[in-house]
């Protein structure tokens, strides 16, 4: 750190993203990307002609993409906010709706960026422990008088919270934003998007990075009452009005047209997940029931650290945190059936070697 850094950031603990190795080919099951490529329409959308227009700024309003998304979700364009990955929206939400007086609450075990944004804006936050079975107890968030942030399904557990429970949280915190992070909703969960008509405090966040195979393009979106969207737009126009580049906007528009392709991939991934859950349980793993494109699992014979390190040596990359209640758990992204076979084979070898 240089001597120029503002003292208000010196204690900030930045987010550590998952490993993105550029030099070696791994079976990459560590950052919840889709194993399937973008749709042919998306690939075609990034033509040489479009690339040659990169001298021009993108449309800061993202009008065309907003209209397409609005039609897909049965809302109006004024209910849609677009962002550079959904991380961008989480950042803007903490900036817009919280401060040292207006706190936030989220599960203690959840997406690692929530506490980073809370610290960045000096937000008083409560990190609420999960239940014994790793589920979120919705009652902990009722009448809490803070911005509530819940990933549904939660990450890294993959477990879901029901619509009725979300409604209870919304009803009991009418003066606070309830942000439901639906990054993994397309793999079998139930979206709460329709509730935006009933609750003007609901902010639903989704991403193109998972079910829509576009993690590399950085595109996220939020759906909410027009008032909340206007607040987010104000923050965007006060920080970076061109937050989505021309090529990503085009890719996003083509992806909406390819919704059937993506939902079919999501179904395939959910099926591969169910098989992986079963197979790992047969191998003596504890595997939580997941509704996401990953599973959270621990071996009952080998420590999480050994498994993570040995899998990496054998060319399979998974996510490992190695602390607290989840010390021995690995988060394993669901790849293609072929990639999962490699995972099972390498894991079986390690269990044998470590006996
Ligand atoms: N929310 C959750 C729960 C996530 O796991 C992630 C990705 N790691 C994100 C949001 C952010 O994803 P992106 O910025 O790629 O949209």
UniProtKB/TrEMBL annotation:
The keyword Amino-acid biosynthesis applies. Its EC number is 2.6.1.9. It is an enzyme of class 2 (transferase). Pfam families: Aminotran_1_2 (PF00155). The keyword Transferase applies. InterPro entries: Aminotrans_II_pyridoxalP_BS, Aminotransferase_I/II_large, HisP_aminotrans, HistidinolP_aminotransfase, PyrdxlP-dep_Trfase, PyrdxlP-dep_Trfase_major, PyrdxlP-dep_Trfase_small. Its cofactor is pyridoxal 5'-phosphate. It catalyses: L-histidinol phosphate + 2-oxoglutarate = 3-(imidazol-4-yl)-2-oxopropyl phosphate + L-glutamate. The modification N6-(pyridoxal phosphate)lysine is found at residue 210. Residues 26-343 form the Aminotransferase class I/classII large domain. GO terms for molecular function: histidinol-phosphate transaminase activity; pyridoxal phosphate binding. Keywords: Amino-acid biosynthesis, Aminotransferase, Histidine biosynthesis, Pyridoxal phosphate, Transferase. Pathway: Amino-acid biosynthesis; L-histidine biosynthesis; L-histidine from 5-phospho-alpha-D-ribose 1-diphosphate: step 7/9. One of its GO terms (biological process) is L-histidine biosynthetic process. Homodimer. PANTHER family: HISTIDINOL-PHOSPHATE AMINOTRANSFERASE (PTHR43643:SF3), HISTIDINOL-PHOSPHATE AMINOTRANSFERASE 2 (PTHR43643). NCBIfam families: hisC. Belongs to the class-II pyridoxal-phosphate-dependent aminotransferase family. Histidinol-phosphate aminotransferase subfamily. This is Histidinol-phosphate aminotransferase. The gene is hisC.
């Amino acid at each position: 750190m240089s001597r120029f850094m503002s003292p208000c950031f010196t204690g900030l603990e930045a987010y550590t993203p998952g490993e993105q190795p550029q030099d070696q080919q791994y079976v990459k099951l560590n950052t919840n990307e889709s194993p399937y490529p973008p749709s042919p329409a998306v690939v075609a959308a990034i033509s040489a002609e479009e690339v040659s227009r990169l001298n021009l700024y993108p449309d800061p309003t993202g009008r065309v993409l907003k209209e397409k998304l609005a039609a897909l979700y049965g809302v109006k364009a004024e209910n849609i906010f677009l962002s550079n990955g959904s991380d961008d929206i989480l950042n803007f939400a903490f900036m817009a709706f919280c401060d040292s007086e207006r706190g936030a609450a989220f599960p203690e075990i959840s997406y690692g960026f929530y506490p980073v944004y809370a610290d960045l804006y000096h937000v008083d936050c409560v990190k609420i422990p999960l239940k014994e079975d790793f589920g979120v107890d919705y009652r902990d968030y009722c009448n809490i008088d803070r911005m509530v942030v819940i990933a549904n399904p939660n990450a890294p557990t993959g477990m879901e919270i029901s619509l009725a429970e979300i409604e209870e949280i919304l009803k009991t915190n009418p003066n606070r934003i309830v942000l439901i992070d639906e990054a993994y909703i397309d793999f079998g969960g139930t979206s709460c998007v329709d509730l935006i008509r009933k609750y003007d405090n609901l902010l639903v966040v989704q991403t193109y990075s998972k079910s829509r195979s576009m993690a590399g393009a950085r595109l996220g979106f939020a759906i909410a009452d027009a008032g909340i969207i206007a607040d987010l737009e104000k923050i965007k126009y006060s920080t970076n009005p061109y937050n989505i580049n021309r090529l990503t906007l085009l890719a996003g528009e083509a992806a909406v047209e390819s919704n059937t392709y993506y939902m079919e991939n999501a179904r395939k991934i959910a099926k591969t997940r169910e098989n992986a859950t079963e197979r790992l349980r047969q191998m003596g793993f504890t595997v939580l029931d997941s509704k996401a494109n990953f599973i959270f699992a621990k071996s009952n014979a080998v420590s999480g650290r050994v498994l993570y390190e040995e899998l990496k040596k054998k060319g399979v990359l998974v996510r490992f945190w190695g602390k607290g209640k989840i010390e021995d758990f690995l988060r394993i992204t669901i790849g293609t059936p072929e990639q999962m076979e490699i995972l099972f084979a390498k894991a079986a070898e390690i269990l044998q070697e470590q006996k």
